[in-house]
Amino acid sequence: MMNILVINAGSSSLKYQLFDMENDTVPARGLFERIGIDGRVKHKAEGREDYVADIPLPGHAAAVRALLDLLTGKDHGVLKSVADITAVGHRVVHGGEQFSSSALITDDVLAAIESVVPLAPLHNPPNLVGINACREVMGESIPHVAVFDTAFHQSMPKRAFLYAVPYEYYTENQVRRYGFHGTSHRYVSGRAAQMLGKPVSELKIVTCHLGNGSSIAAVDGGRSADTSMGMTPLEGVPMGTRSGSIDPAIIAYLCSARGMTVDQVTDALNKKSGMLGVSGVSPDFRDLYAAAADGNDRAQLALDMFAYSVRKQTGALAAAMGGIDVLVFTAGVGENNSTMRASVCEGLEFMGVSVDGEKNRAARGEADISAAGARVRVLVVPTDEELVIARDTRDLI
């Protein structure tokens, strides 16, 4: 039996899933939150009652210890001992240019992850904290693997990943497009090919990962050719609270016109913009649709802007590949919001995209929502980034 524990550590949280790799099932999953504040755990295990409790969590190591106690305990556990965990896979947001695939974690790999912290200051530090906490508590006998959000996009050519700024900004400061959500784009493009019964190497696929954070990718023959997010997850289409791409001169203008600092503008672009900034209502698409139905014009405008931007980016990425065979929707909005899927596809008929309205509205889970005879297949594919992490971990060990 091979059991892979998948960890996604945030600044005050730790999500986990335990995979039985014999059949890709998940015997246990859960979330530790409010780490370093007070502490709370939500744990689900096969054949056991759900467990929710407030527990003291002074740090991530305490969360890992509590996790191992839950996984092996008689009341909520699914393992006999910690030794039944074969390996641990960790989500790491940024791998810079050093990693084009997942990597077995060593001291050198940790140093490389540390070196790109300036490129992902909000994400890589908690990822590192999670890795170090697991290694500290579980010891050196259990292997650990890092799976990078950026790795899939390392196949982009220079013409796609470079910005038109002085070249030494790239060579000396690593200023370039990295792209994110790579694990999701890799999974759904591969799964889409399986659904169609075709090798992914023969397909041109645009994958739309649409949620509170959104990115679009051109997957040409199974490799990322381009993507909407850039050096940071701020670039691209507008998102829940992120502006997406803007004229960079706006930053200097706001500093002058509103007396803001660069940090204040950056904070506004990341946390107060996007759907929230335009609508003034919420970053949540469900709230926006409810407000729009009640006649809120700004909520409707935010939804229209989002659909337009995704549609425009889809056309651009299809052009980057010289064509498109498949359009895939995934993540929270992409998987669950038939109205947004229809809005994105409206106007893409010129390149062969056409959606069957009834199939689209009825879609639950994996679905082909293409209209009969449509040249481009339109699929809904629920993403499973944790499964990718578990499989990469298994393969590496």
Notable features of this structure?
globular; six-stranded mixed sheet; 2 domains; eight-stranded mixed sheet; 397 residues; Nucleotidyltransferase, domain 5; 15 helices; single chain
What would you say this structure looks like, in words?
The protein contains 15 helices and 14 strands. It is α/β, with parallel strands linked by helices and 397 residues long. It folds into two domains: 3-148, Nucleotidyltransferase, domain 5, CATH 3.30.420; 198-380, ATPase, nucleotide binding domain (Nucleotidyltransferase, domain 5). An eight-stranded mixed β-sheet has the order 5-4-3-2-1-6-8-7, sandwiched between helices. Helix 1 (60-72) packs across helix 3 (124-138), helix 10 (285-293) crosses helix 11 (297-321) and helix 11 (297-321) crosses helix 13 (338-345). The longest helix is centred in the C-terminal third of the chain and has 25 residues, at 297-321. It starts with a strand and ends with a helix.
* Sequence of secondary-structure elements: EEEEEHEEHHEHHHEEEHHHHHEHHHEEH
Q: Provide the CATH topology of the largest domain.
A: Nucleotidyltransferase, domain 5
Shape: globular
| Biggest sheet strand line-up | 5-4-3-2-1-6-8-7
Gyration radius over CA: 22 Å
Distance between the termini: 14 Å
Summarize the amount of helix as a percent range: 25-40%
State the fourth-level CATH superfamily of the largest domain: ATPase, nucleotide binding domain
Instruction: Supply the helix-strand structural class.
Output: alpha/beta
Name of the CATH first level of the largest domain: Alpha Beta
CATH-derived architecture of the largest domain = 2-Layer Sandwich
Q: Sheet bearing the most strands, described?
A: 8 strands, mixed
Query: Low-confidence parts lasting 5 or more residues at pLDDT below 50?
Result: none
Mean pLDDT equals: 95
Give the count of structural domains: 2
- What percent strand? 15-25%
- Number of strand segments: 14
- In DSSP terms (H or I, runs of 4 or more residues), the helix count works out at 15
